[in-house]
From TrEMBL, chain B:
Residues 1-22 form the signal peptide. The keyword Signal applies. This is SoxXA-binding protein SoxK. It comes from Afipia carboxidovorans (strain ATCC 49405 / DSM 1227 / KCTC 32145 / OM5) (Oligotropha carboxidovorans). Keywords: Signal.
Length: 283, 103
């Protein structure tokens, strides 16, 4: 009798392990999306869903008041003007950015990044901007700031309020692979301080790290590019990712490395349905 | 008498260690630096170099250029240890990251 009971218990434990493993392997972008969303809405029940795109301002009342006051004269305004000018200025061959993008580049920020079935890689807006320049015989921009931040700021501004709409083509396993690699990058610890992206933006949003209030991972890219007081200027998603790596004492990868583009793909998919709020400003 | 002998022997030992520690040469530095560089290169292939490793390597090179091979070798050894730690971190994290995923 006792032996039978022990055997049953052992079998139950074994089955439990198998079920747990099956849960891990059964992870799909759709399941991840639901779990990610539930995590944040349960952790911060008082924060309206669309407010997560406002990062630390959705977490801290004092910061929010300062931000609202700052928005009367937003620090990214100069970049918007410059970006519009660059966007409309013809290249040497007479073409403009409008010739490279769907809908002439207006109101399309929410669709980036996307997975290109021809090249089997993630195409971010920043990459697409430089591809457009190179295709038209122009010198590509620095990925981190200045002209790149200005053009993407203008493109984001024309898309404000539109919900993120990132697609993972189910018929292309390479797209799911890119998504999974982005997820791995997000959760994998690195740098001498042994931090992952999730260490700050999943485990501790709303908490302070030194003087900064950490932003939630949900909607963290919707306000990009941003004017950051710490930087004293505008910065792109590339700048954000590389500076995060440096802060944990890791050597940053090259801007727009496949790892960063996959990470952007993962985070943007998690933000599906949340509005574009860029360009933004952060402390 | 025994105490005095012990003190003399101890002092002699300490002196030997100190002399041995101050005996780093260009050759010992080069060997230590090559090992550190190789480990850091491997960390780079794993896409996880640490800024502190790079700083230690730079410091080692600078000290060697100034002829201070004791400091240079120490820094090179430190760089190797840091690079090896970053490699170990990557190997560990490749297995552990799924545990952190929100479910």
């Amino acid at each position: 009798m006792m032996r039978g009971l022990a055997l049953l218990m052992a079998l139950a434990m074994l089955a439990g392990t198998q079920i747990a493993r099956a849960e891990v392997t059964a992870s799909t972008p759709e399941n991840d999306f639901k779990a990610f969303r539930n995590f944040f809405t349960n952790k911060f029940p008082k924060v309206p869903l669309n407010d997560f795109v406002n990062g630390p301002y959705s977490m801290d009342e004092g910061l929010r008041k300062q931000w609202i006051a700052k928005e009367d004269f937003p620090p990214y305004d100069f970049a918007l003007d410059h970006g519009k000018e660059l966007f409309e200025k013809p290249f040497k061959n007479g073409k403009t950015f409008a010739d490279c993008f769907p809908n002439k580049g207006i109101g399309i920020r929410q669709n980036y990044p996307y997975f290109d079935d021809k090249t089997n890689e993630v195409i971010t807006l920043e990459l697409a901007v430089n591809q457009c320049l190179e295709k038209n015989g122009e010198k590509p921009y620095n990925y981190m700031k200045d002209d790149m931040a200005a053009v993407t700021a203008y493109m984001a501004f024309t898309s404000r309020g539109k919900p993120f709409d990132i697609k993972i083509p189910k018929d292309n396993p390479k797209a799911v692979e890119a998504y999974e690699k982005g997820k791995q990058y997000f959760y994998q610890r690195r740098g001498q301080l042994n931090f992952s992206c999730a260490s700050c933006h999943i485990q501790a949003p709303g908490e302070r790290i030194r003087a900064e209030v950490l932003a939630p991972a949900l909607g963290i890219l919707n306000a990009m590019p941003i004017y950051r007081s710490e930087w004293g200027g505008m910065g792109t998603i590339s700048r954000r990712f590389t500076s995060c790596n440096s802060q944990v004492r890791g050597v940053p990868l090259e801007p727009q490395a496949p790892e960063y583009r996959n990470l952007e793909y993962y985070l943007s998919y998690m933000a599906n349905g949340l509005p574009v709020s860029g360009p933004g400003s952060r402390p | 008498m025994r105490i005095i002998t012990s003190i003399i022997v101890g002092a002699a030992l300490l002196l030997t260690v100190a002399v041995a520690q101050a005996a780093e040469t260009a050759e010992t530095f080069n060997a230590a630096y090559a090992k550190a560089e190789a480990a850091n290169k491997k960390a780079g292939e794993l896409r996880n170099q640490w800024t502190t490793t790079v700083a230690a390597l730079k410091g080692a090179k600078k000290a060697a250029d100034e002829g201070n091979f004791d400091a240079a070798t120490n820094l090179a050894k430190r760089a190797e240890a840091l690079a090896n730690a970053s490699i170990a971190q990557t190997e560990r994290e490749v297995k552990l990251w799924p545990d952190a995923v929100v479910r």
